[in-house]
């Protein structure tokens, strides 16, 4: 068992907040539970397009692609205005302990790829669909969430924002 008091004390002394989310009380994890719901709804919509067209290996590959897409979102923007600073921290950085950003595969993937004999093209098309849909819903969620919880001033010159562009490659976030 974990000594939660000891962990909380140690983290508090290092200016970290420790939030315990018990599995039986998932309703307390509002932000991440909302993200899970968003990811599920996008997965359901994208996989409905591929009904009966993915074998186990292709489905697993698609899930890995989706996981990488979701974990490439920026978590921090503290040092974004400093030209010498590193890229924003992402969940992928924490999971893989690497600073590299995965590059999307070269080429365009179109709807016809869903029916192609090449399973790789099919998975890449579905990954592009997932990226497009999830990114739109994610941006809506983070903007709404900030409005609900705290009053904010309007955006000013020099503020860090996520720029919504429809035609950017996978894993790329314009800040």
Automatic annotation (TrEMBL):
<dbReference type="Pfam" id="PF18701">
    <property type="entry name" value="DUF5641"/>
</dbReference>
<dbReference type="GO" id="GO:0003676">
    <property type="term" value="F:nucleic acid binding"/>
</dbReference>
<dbReference type="InterPro" id="IPR040676">
    <property type="entry name" value="DUF5641"/>
</dbReference>
<dbReference type="InterPro" id="IPR036397">
    <property type="entry name" value="RNaseH_sf"/>
</dbReference>
<protein>
    <recommendedName>
        <fullName>DUF5641 domain-containing protein</fullName>
    </recommendedName>
</protein>
<feature type="domain" description="DUF5641">
    <location>
        <begin position="118"/>
        <end position="175"/>
    </location>
</feature>
């Amino acid at each position: 068992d974990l000594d939660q008091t000891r962990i909380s004390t140690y983290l508090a002394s290092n200016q970290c907040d420790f939030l315990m989310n018990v599995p039986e009380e998932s309703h307390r994890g509002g932000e991440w539970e909302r993200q899970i719901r968003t990811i599920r709804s996008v997965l359901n919509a994208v996989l409905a397009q591929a009904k009966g067209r993915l074998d186990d290996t292709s489905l697993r590959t698609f899930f890995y692609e989706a996981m990488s897409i979701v974990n490439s979102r920026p978590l921090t923007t503290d040092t974004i205005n400093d030209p010498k600073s590193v890229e924003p921290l992402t969940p992928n950085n924490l999971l893989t302990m690497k600073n590299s950003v995965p590059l999307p595969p070269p080429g365009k993937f179109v709807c016809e790829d869903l029916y192609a004999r090449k399973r790789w093209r099919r998975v890449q098309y579905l990954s592009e669909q997932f990226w497009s849909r999830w990114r739109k819903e994610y941006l809506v969620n983070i903007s709404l969430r900030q409005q609900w919880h705290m009053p904010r001033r309007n955006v000013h010159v020099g503020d860090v924002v996520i720029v919504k562009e429809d035609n950017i490659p996978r894993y790329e976030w314009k800040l």
